Amino acid sequence: MMHMHMTLYWGKDVTLLIDSWKTESWLSYLLALLACFIFASFYQYMEDRRLRFSSLASSKSNPSPPSYVPLLPNYRRSAKFATAVLFGINSAFGYILMLAIMSFNGGVFLAIVLGLAVGYLLFRSAGDEKVVAENVCACA
C-alpha cells in the first residue's frame, strides 16, 4: 500500500508526479531537486517570452513583417497566436510545478520556489521594460 503524505515532510524518499519517478537514494533525490529547480526557472523564461509576444501583439504601431518570414500576412496576428500558444504551454508548466509541490516534500517545495525566484531574477527582472500586471501563481 502506498503512503501519501498530507503534510510537509523532509526526506529523500519522494514520488514525484508519476509512480515511476521515485527517489530512494540521496543522488536520485538531489537530481530530482535539480530538475525541479531547472524546470521552475525555465517556466519563468517561457513566461518572459509570452509577455514579450503579448506586448508585441498589443503594440499600437503596425510593424511591417520581418523579411525572414515573408509568408506571414499579419505580423500582429501571428504574435497573438504565439501568445496564445505560449499561454497554453506555460499553464501546463505551472500545473506540473503545482503537482510536484503537492508531493509535500520540503526539498521539492524549496527547489521550485528557488527556481522560480532565480528564473525571475535572470529572465524577468530587467528594469528597462514597462510594468505588466501579472499573477504570481506559477499555475496561472
TrEMBL record:
TM helices/strands, residue ranges: 26-46, 81-101, 107-123
Coiled-coil portions: none
Subcellular localization: Membrane
Chloroplast among keywords: no
Keyword terms of this UniProt record: Copper, Copper transport, Ion transport, Membrane, Transmembrane, Transmembrane helix, Transport
Bilayer topology term: Multi-pass membrane protein
GO cellular component: plasma membrane
Pfam families the UniProt entry points to: Ctr
GO molecular function: copper ion transmembrane transporter activity
Similarity-based family: Belongs to the copper transporter (Ctr) (TC 1.A.56) family. SLC31A subfamily.
Name of protein: Copper transport protein
Naturally occurring in which organism (per UniProt): Hibiscus trionum
High-level lineage: Eukaryota, Viridiplantae, Streptophyta, Embryophyta, Tracheophyta
